[in-house]
Amino acid sequence: MNQVIPIIIWSIKVAIPTILFLIGVQLLIVSHSKWETIVGKVVGVNDLEISKTGFVVLKVFALMFVAAAVGIAYVLFIKE
User: Fold this and answer.
1) Residue 3, class by beta-carbon neighbours within 10 Å (0-12 exposed, 13-18 middle, 19+ buried)?
2) Long-range contacts of 61-67 (CB under 8 A, 24+ apart)
3) Is 30 helix (H, G, I), strand (E, B) or coil?
4) pTM beyond 0.90
5) Contact yes or no for 63/28 (Cβ under 8 A)
6) What is the largest CA-CA distance in the chain?
7) Concatenated DSSP letters for 46-57?
């Protein structure tokens, strides 16, 4: 019973960067039309067109998820 709390804490420490990394990678491999669908659903617009510049901004946003995951993993596991 003594080992349950450290295992739970370790699982949470592993889960947070993993989830962020997976979200970022999934958003990076999504096509232009899928991005339009995702953003349209979030905003509430059925027919949405994203410019090429907007598409690049969204890809940078996805890349920030990946960078955040790597940064959090570094702080939680390597910097200790």
Assistant:
1) exposed
2) 61/27, 62/23, 62/24, 62/25, 62/27, 62/28, 62/30, 63/24, 63/28, 64/24, 65/20, 65/21, 65/23, 65/24, 65/27, 66/20, 66/21, 66/24, 66/25, 66/28, 67/24
3) coil
4) no
5) yes
6) 56
7) SS----HHHHHH
- Per-residue tens of pLDDT for the chain, all 80 residues: 678 888 898 899 899 999 999 999 998 898 888 888 888 888 888 888 888 898 898 899 999 999 999 999 898 888 76
